[in-house]
Amino acid sequence: MTVFSQARSLFFGSVFLTAGFASLPFAVLSLILKGRPFDIFSKSKISSANFTILWSIVGKPSAADEKLTNKTISQAYGVYLDLGPGTGFTVHHFDKSKTTKIFGIEPNKAFHPALQKAIDAAGLTDIYTIVGTGVEDSETLKTFGIEEGSIDTIVACKVLCSVPEPKATIEHLYKILAPGGQFLVLEHVKAKWGIGALAQALANKIWPFLMAGCNLCRPTEAYLYGAGEWEVKDLQHPEGVSGHEFITFTQGRLIKAK
Ligand SMILES: C[S@@+](CC[C@H](N)C(=O)[O-])C[C@H]1O[C@@H](n2cnc3c(N)ncnc32)[C@H](O)[C@@H]1O
């Protein structure tokens, strides 16, 4: 583990946390201005409004993020699910020449206008459909033809931290994948022992409230590996990441057994 990557992660994590608190008054104000004053008494609605403001500002990827995301998304092909595309910061990485159809599963409707703008700018308008629900909502997904064995590629970039009941949801996603289909992953996960892990456990007391349910301490690799039988199971920490950082990532590809 490098001291530099640990310190860097703690620094950026603290900036995120501070920004999360600072945006709370604006989240309350935004609900009032949208004519939904009673929503300020709902913890989940404040949480969602707070993350909507926060992600639009601090979610913008750095050059290093762009490189990592491109490595993941450029492998997508066929019919795919883009899980939690948010404001569309990542949609320009999709390679249209390898794509039949993309379903962007985004429950936060406040993100949809920016997402649609990003889809149009990326030239994906005719093949990208926004589905305004959570990925666990299998009934709504079915109305779009998203059923067991129907999807060639699932892309999960910084979203499995936020889905409810992650183990069951990932098992459901495994079923949706076609045999031989691929699950492309770039996710922040539970840290290995050390200061980063301790800071994660402490910050996680308030982090999910500030960040619309984002959980810092998820063993997402274990959920993915355990979801079913895989032909390829290749999740690694990106270069320069040891797994001990406060915000630590796993990246890679799983291929469902045929
Ligand atoms: C941290 S943002 C990442 C956005 C985008 N993937 C990116 O990398 O820029 C997490 C996204 O997951 C979405 N999300 C949360 N719960 C979800 C669920 N149950 N199903 C699908 N997406 C979800 C959030 O609304 C948000 O847009």
Automatic annotation (TrEMBL):
Segments spanning the bilayer are 12-33
Q: Which InterPro entries match?
A: SAM-dependent_MTases_sf (IPR029063), Thiol_S-MT (IPR052356)
Can you tell which superkingdom this protein's organism belongs to? Eukaryota
Which CDD domains does the protein's record reference?
A: AdoMet_MTases
Q: Does the keyword Cytoplasm apply?
A: no
Q: Which organism is it from?
A: Arthrobotrys musiformis
Q: Does Transmembrane helix count among this protein's keywords?
A: yes
Protein name according to UniProt = Methyltransferase type 11 domain-containing protein
Its taxonomic path starts at:
Eukaryota, Fungi, Dikarya, Ascomycota, Pezizomycotina
Q: Which UniProt keywords apply?
A: Membrane, Transmembrane, Transmembrane helix
